[in-house]
Amino acid sequence: MDESLKTVAKFDDPMRASIAQTKLKDSGIESAIFGETSSYPAINAVEDNIELKVNAADYDQAVRILAASQSAE
C-alpha cells in the first residue's frame, strides 16, 4: 500500500468491513481496515468508526466495485 490512502467506505460492523475488503481483493485492489478495535468501549459503539482504505490511485475503481456489490445485495 502506498502512502496516500483514501477512505472508500465506513462501517459499524467489522464483518461487513471484512466482506467489502474481500470483494476489493478479489478484484485485485489492496485495502486496509482501520478502527476495527479499540480499548475504549465507547469508541467501538460509535457508528461507522471502521474505515476501509485504498490507495488513492485505486479509489474510483473501488467505489464502483463496492457500489455494484451493494446494488446486487
Reading off the top of the CATH hierarchy, the class is best stated as: Alpha Beta
Are there runs of 5+ residues with pLDDT below 50, and where? none
- Going by CATH, what is the homologous superfamily? Hypothetical protein rpa1041
Q: What is the CATH architecture annotation?
A: 2-Layer Sandwich
Percentage of residues in helical conformation: 40-55%
CATH topology descriptor: Alpha-Beta Plaits
Question: For the report, how would you describe the main beta sheet?
Answer: 3 strands, antiparallel
Sheet/helix structural class: alpha+beta
Give the SSE order as H and E letters: EHEHEH
**Strand order of the biggest β-sheet:** 1-3-2
- Quantity of strands, as a count: 3
Write down the overall mean pLDDT: 85
- Give the radius of gyration: 12 Å
What is the terminal-to-terminal distance? 29 Å
DSSP strand content:
15-25%
How many separate helices?
Answer: 3
Total domain modules: 1
Question: What global shape is seen?
Answer: globular
Tell me briefly what this model is.
With 73 residues, the protein is α+β, with helices and mostly antiparallel strands. It has helices at 14-26, 41-44, 59-72, and strands at 5-11, 31-34, 50-55.
